[in-house]
Amino acid sequence: MSPLSRRSFLKSAAAAAAVGAVPVLGTGCSSRPVCPPPPGGRLSMRFYPHDNELAHTFTISGFSRDVTHAVLVEISYEGVTGYGEAALPPYMTGQTVETASDFLRKVDLSRFNDPFMTDDILDYVDGIAPGMSCAKCGVDIALHDLIGRLCGLPLWRMWGYNPDKTPCTSYTIGMDTREKIIEKTLEAEPYRILKVKLGSTEENDKMIISTIREVTDKPIVIDANQGWKDKYYALDMIGWLQERGIQMIEQPMPKDVYDDMAWITERSPLPTYGDESCQRLEDVSRLKGVFSGINIKLIKCTGLREANKMITTARSLGMNVMIGCTTETSCACSAAAQLSPKVDFADIDGNLLLSNDCFDGMKVVDGKITLNDKPGIGVTKI
Ligand code: MG
Q1: Residue partners of 281: CB distance under 8 A and separation at least 6
Q2: Which of 4, 21, 201, 344 lies 20 to 30 angstroms, CA to CA, from 232?
Q3: How far is the CA of 78 from the centre of ligand 1 (A)?
Q4: Which residues surround ligand 1, an ion (CB under 5 A)?
């Protein structure tokens, strides 16, 4: 060990000894020494609907909306509460407040007396019924937030992820009129990457990109949301987009068109990412060769536990990884942000598109996702 690194080590060890010797139950500040309470207590859960209201009408290929319904989940143990969110975008999973609530009523956490048995608890939740990934995600996030709070540590620290490695997040611009596109592009000034929704007619798609390029030369990523139906047309469009400084293309074709998508990926000058094609862990290996990478979203894959496994699996297959979100509060966005040091692209801006965010959490500073030191997912309920 060099003198300098030895000095650093001793300094760190002394600091660790000073804070780590006498554990105290943490309730919100990660700088306090903590000791998780022992098993034997009682886990409880409550949930309630919440409407995520959008600052602008949000339009993508095939859908338009002003609100995203959600169910917020709280799991408590020994006086400490973790928060979770099940956002329910209508086009993505088919789940509603009613079906998610019906599922959550079946979740009986009183059968567990140790919140750190996350594998057992989440296996049980996943086995209650097939599907219902959004509702399961709400439980997963709340449970992870709870164990982080009980330890007094942020999840990124518990997992060993480096907060300096977080990427910039893209800022999403939905389909709109030329005037609105200009307005939204100017609004996106603080962000370094734009995510642009395409997938309508050739004329409209090209109008959107040309309009944005009149305003800015920032990097752009594209999400066509399955909007293009012909592989030759899709490849031509990707070539046109590459000439305009686009970085990558997400889900250009319908989700089940694997052969055509593999044909495009083989020839595409831009990396391709599967979103609607990639729901859960079991999908990752079958998408090798179909897309260059996958877009993980917590509400698709049931939450943080499975998202971590998907990242590891995709990396082992040599695939790229991005993490996305839907229009959800800083609760779910801060949960997704815990994983962001491990991905190539991040699209965690759902909270920024809301007018009634009811959590304070991770921030975007100079375009970059910035994780805080608060325990769990790092949020405060407003
Ligand atoms: Mg997408």
Answers
A1: 301, 306, 309, 310, 313
A2: 344
A3: 39
A4: 223, 250, 275
